[in-house]
Prior knowledge:
Distance between the termini: 35 Å
Number of strands: 12
Number of helices: 12
Strand order of the largest sheet: 1-2-3-4-7-8-9-10-11-12
Strand content: 15-25%
Shape: elongated
Low-confidence stretches: 1-17, 375-393
Amino acid sequence: xxxxxxxxxxxxxxxxxxxxxxxxxxxxxxxxxxxxxxxxxxxxxxxxxxxxxxxxxxxxxxxxxxxxxxxxxxxxxxxxxxxxxxxxxxxxxxxxxxxxxxxxxxxxxxxxxxxxxxxxxxxxxxxxxxxxxxxxxxxxxxxxxxxxxxxxxxxxxxxxxxxxxxxxxxxxxxxxxxxxxxxxxxxxxxxxxxxxxxxxxxxxxxxxxxxxxxxxxxxxxxxxxxxxxxxxxxxxxxxxxxxxxxxxxxxxxxxxxxxxxxxxxxxxxxxxxxxxxxxxxxxxxxxxxxxxxxxxxxxxxxxxxxxxxxxxxxxxxxxxxxxxxxxxxxxxxxxxxxxxxxxxxxxxxxxxxxxxxxxxxxxxxxxxxxxxxxxxxxxxxxxxxxxxxxxxx
Length: 393
């Protein structure tokens, strides 16, 4: 059994490991904070709104394009408000350009990943909240790599803004040109970086120029089940969707697959999820990676059905992309179909997740692992984390 690492839920809690954070960016601040910063530079406070309009409203970060700013002030304002946070390392596309994955290098050399997914009716981005992950789920590439550090609020937001610009450029053919959905399902455990993730959500949903102006109902936050943080999120007066990475309905197996279960058992995690649903009125998404001969037995489908029957929940079954050399493998399709049938017979809404991006290492942590190892990322065997895929909300 994998031992649970002691990772603080709150990155600012006593004893939390301190890592070098990036320079302050306008996305780290609300509009009032940006105005105060600009005034401290000796510029009129309204310049903060102008720069924010370029960044959030027009998806522009090049000061040369900010022609409503005095030429003498552009570079200085951009240096203070728009420092470079993400340096592209690789950008790969598949599915006729509808799926695009970006690997970023941060200021300290850490690697993180984001994915853009275009559909006929929407554009979704999957973003990372940490460099690496400390939750140690053994079937997840990111979990195997361990945690490097939490991302800043702006490092989280900048992933969405950058990929919103890609969508706006028309690069995703057959999809709307405007980003509409964001899922926190990339690298990291979002609720283990609670304060910054919450601030990032508020930037994403605030209207421009404060933020991107997305609908709260189009934001999904995934978690392996940090119970106190789930309760805390329920009290924030937000309407975001909670996605719970369950992966097993029984404590014996979940202790191994999701080591945080050694601290908060299945019943506690589900009780927190139902409390979140009751408080917000939002259906909880139950994420379940289908792993051959591990968690895909009919009796586990029946147990899961009994746990979820009558609850405000939807099951997202995830076909596993196995890690090279790992003992974990994907469930055969007939087994997957039987699992779906049993859940639906129990009255539980169930779908199988779209498995896009396998040929570009589309799953969580794989492209970063390939970069670190110096291997070719294209054509390798995929790995999945907690689901770097789109959620129906």
